[in-house]
Design goal:
By secondary structure, the chain is an all-alpha fold. It has a single domain, classed as Orthogonal Bundle (Hypothetical protein af1432), CATH 1.10.3210. It is built from ten helices and no strands.
Length: 199
């Protein structure tokens, strides 16, 4: 039997993000998911190695890779619409759950147990919290990059996203912002590839 799961996942590259905004560089869901996975993995490493929490960075990265997989069916709904009111949010969650089930059905039965928590994540657990934080950080970085390119369209989004990040009150997010965000404002020539290794 042939299964379509990974062929479907590869189509995330055709779904554009920030549809209501003028972009200097269009971002798709596939590249966004990669960046969220990179940041989520980093947040988990920070949580484990700097703040001493018991968390698996690999599990967090995997969850982040698939965090927007449901958008194959839903598309990328703009944040102001998705969170406009509780009724829309509740309906959207149901559509996301339906999309997760459809994607699971595109896998062999033997693989579904491993992918189920990735495609239908729970609320309130530590992995989900770090993935959501990474998602917001990726959005914030996108806003900073657009502003750096001279696009003032993202000015309000940057302020609002930073406010949401601060409201998370997660020590690993604060650490990431303090130590890694400033480099996103630098040019390639200003980035230092020769950082000392303190291992």
């Amino acid at each position: 039997m042939r299964y379509s799961f990974f062929a479907l996942i590869s189509r995330l590259k055709y779904i554009s993000r920030w549809a209501l905004m003028r972009n200097s560089k269009v971002e798709n869901v596939q590249e966004h998911s990669h960046m969220v996975a990179v940041i989520a993995h980093a947040l988990a490493v920070i949580a484990r190695d700097i703040f001493g929490r018991d968390i698996d960075p690999g599990a967090v990265a995997a969850a982040a890779l698939y965090h927007d997989a449901s958008e194959l069916i839903t598309g990328d709904m703009p944040t102001p619409v998705k969170y406009h009111n509780p009724e829309i949010m509740s309906a959207y969650k149901k559509v996301e759950a339906f999309a997760g089930e459809k994607l699971l059905a595109a896998l062999p039965v033997e693989m579904r147990r491993a992918f189920d928590p990735l495609l239908t994540p729970g609320d309130g657990d530590e992995v989900t919290a770090l993935v959501k934080a990474a998602d917001k950080l990726a959005a914030y970085i996108k806003c900073l990059e657009e502003q750096k390119a001279g696009n003032s369209e993202f000015q309000t989004a940057a302020v609002e996203t930073k406010r949401k990040l601060d409201a998370l009150d997660l020590s690993e997010v604060g650490y990431f912002i303090d130590n890694f965000i400033p480099a996103f404002g630098l040019t390639l020539d200003e980035l230092d590839f020769k950082a000392p290794r303190d291992i």
